[in-house]
Amino acid sequence: MDFGILLKKIKEYDTIAIFGHIRPDGDCYGSLNGLKNIIMTTFPTKRVFCLTSHVESLTFLGKMDDVTDDEIFTNALGIVCDTSTRERIADKRYKLCKELIKVDHHIVIDNYGNYNFVDENIPATSLLICRFFFTYPEELKMTSIGANALYTGTITDTSNFRYRGVNLETFTYAGKLVELGADVEYIDHNLSCESLRTTKLKTFVYRTLKVTKNGVAYAKLTKTIINHYNVTYDEAASLVTLLSNIKECPVWILFIGYPKEVRVRIRSNGPDINMLAEAYGGGGHQKAAGASLKSWFKVRNFVKDSDELVRCYKQNIPYKIGKKEV
Ligand code: AMP
What we know:
Elements (H helix, E strand, L loop, with lengths): L3 H9 L2 E5 L6 H17 L4 E5 L19 H4 L2 E5 L17 E6 L10 E4 L6 H11 L8 H14 L10 H12 L4 H9 L3 H13 L1 E2 L4 E6 L1 H7 L3 H5 L13 E7 L4 E7 L5 H6 L3 E2 L3 E6 L3 H18 L5 E2 L2 E2 L1
Parallel strand pairs: 1-2, 1-3, 3-4, 4-5, 7-8
Antiparallel strand pairs: 6-7, 8-9, 9-11, 10-11, 12-13
This protein binds adenosine monophosphate (AMP).
């Protein structure tokens, strides 16, 4: 991957807007804040903004910028990180930018940038930012703030180095980030701490989790339940991990009732699930995907199709969703 044009464009522009996806996660916050730190440390006179929604639990990496003047974008370079399609870019003002660059690690569906830096095999966009950074060791600079951000993005998207995409490059960059000041204990503390209300909601998830005939574990957190436990939607959504690692269940799903949709978080340690998510208008990776359903009525079908996917997987036969064979 030749990062020459990325560095050239960063040098060319005085104003750079870095965009992330809707419902940002650790890798989104990590890659945005990491890249911002690299640019601002190396080129202190440039104006750099990070733009996606605010997530309280990730603000230890840096806050998103509040840009009210749209004029700023007209002469800006836009860099979109960790976002597979243009529909998922949280701040639509990316359209106003003079040029757009995509930096991502999701399966390519939409090359919306004027320049696209995509590696589908790297386990985190934060690692792609590291690859860019370490390509120019003499030129680019980063402080411990950037190192914390990129290290966080790396461990959140690899679930602490637990996925197969993790390789020598991952550990090399992780080590280099620690050398640059990433504080692993500080990061772990911030990622692991949860509210007492969330702890209480966990017992609800364990009490109500269901398992389908072929082994899909799932739980539903409706708006009423979320309000009752007085947790944020993000706190509720984070509980998908509770359903993981059940021996009989290679696929697990958490359905979360957001104000205007039901968010689906689906995970697998068996069959690929991205095609299933795509069939419902969503997307993602082979083992971690998601979708937004219009109503709870659709949940039933989603569970049914997931169960069929697991049946086919266990019997080693192809799975068809719609006209597609998976
Ligand atoms: P999440 O469960 O939100 O962590 O999402 C897991 C993966 O699925 C991420 O890579 C997301 O980008 C992707 N994803 C989640 N929801 C959607 C959606 N509605 N449309 C497309 N991709 C999604």
